[in-house]
Design goal:
Blueprint: H1 2-7, H2 22-39, E1 43-52, E2 55-68, E3 71-79, E4 86-87, H3 89-101, E5 106-111, E6 114-115, H4 117-125, E7 128-132, H5 135-148, E8 152-158, H6 164-174, H7 176-179, E9 186-207, E10 214-224, E11 231-234, E12 237-240, H8 253-265, E13 267-269, H9 270-277, H10 281-293, E14 297-300, E15 303-306, H11 317-323, E16 328-330, E17 340-342, H12 349-358, E18 361-382, E19 385-394, H13 411-420, E20 422-423
Parallel strand pairs: 3-5, 4-6, 5-7, 8-18, 9-17
Antiparallel strand pairs: 1-2, 2-3, 8-16, 9-10, 9-18, 9-20, 11-12, 13-15, 14-15, 18-19
Helix pairs in contact: 2-5, 3-4, 8-10, 8-12
Amino acid sequence: MLQEVMEEESPATVNIKNEISVNSLKDVLLSWIEEELKKKGYTVVRDYVVESSGVKHRFDLLAEQEAIPGLKISIGVIFVNSNQRIIDVDVVERYIAWRETLPIDSIVLVTTKNVSPEARELASRYGIDLIVISEDTISKLVMERKGLAKMLEGYYYIKPRIDADYVIKYVEASHKSIFFKKPKVKISNIALVYIPLVVGNIEMSRAGVVAEEIEIVKGKVVVDGIHGYVVTRHNNALAIYEDIGSLVEDISDKAIEALDIVSNEITINISSLGSKLDISDEDLKQILDTLSSKTLVDVYGDIVEFKGLDPHIFTDIDSIVTEYRCEVVKGTPPAEIPGIVKLGINISIPKFEKLLRSLRCELHNLYVIYYPFYIVFLSEVKNGEEHEKLIIIDAITGEEAGDISKVFLDIDTIEYIRRHSLDIQRLNQMKI
């Protein structure tokens, strides 16, 4: 059924919203800054952690350059996204201690928000640079990113099979015990949240059961578009394969390069691989640990063996659509309707495509399909403080989907969903 929808009209007719999530914008800006720093001769590392007095401090980018022999300059870059409309002194104060204690020559805070004069003065006093990216620059960079979106052949979304009223009744019936607690727990808000799933149709070859035979395997790879987790099914609800983790965030560009080498060689000596990559033994060990934990390679003593991707671990979205007779619509979800939230794509599509090709996958096409979930907010007051719990319901099967929760763990994401959720007294406004 999904394939039929995809074949109805060409991808060029798909209406793609001119929206970009905070996380996607962060990725766009950091990629641009990284490119500019590299042009200046800097070596740049993403998600760099500096430890001081047992405390870990994470930088979005760390750039280093040897100005003269023996003198290395380091710049730590942090993307700052405040829930406030302006960056004030409170935001800057968080990083003053970093500037004074960490072995970083310069700390740069990058933001798209306005900065108060007091915050600028405080940052200048402590040697912290503040860079505000202009609207023109953002527009230019986003348009360039949408050029990359040509790799995607289309956007689709699945309409939910159950409505919000059903979800409220289900939660009340299946969680009776918590509603009889004192102080009383109540359902406060609900949102219909669409998660982008990136789906790729692939064909790959691997060793057959019989010696000297090659098996051709066709299948689909499905990852969530926010973190890049493998998407599977558990207890009749969509879930992520937590043991494997993210196939995009966790795997560095150097690890993809290593995969490309190993998949070509099938088996290779560790020292030979390290030599080809030109990295330290410690960095190589970290890469191999990551790849083996995701079952992409095996390490036997000093030998690395290519295992490749098992397409059977991914869920089959087509079968879900067929089994539940879902309605698939070409385009993106109607996020302008109260209570409906569309989460943006955060992962790097070019990086995901590069990873698949390094795994010797012939990629026929890539597309995005938005899958619906209901998120129910429960509130409880304890000792004068309000506590909150989230229950996630698969909007297709009607089952609880707690195993997908890792996608929502980011505080900014939860806050964004909360802001766009509906009070249960206003459910009639959620017109699906």
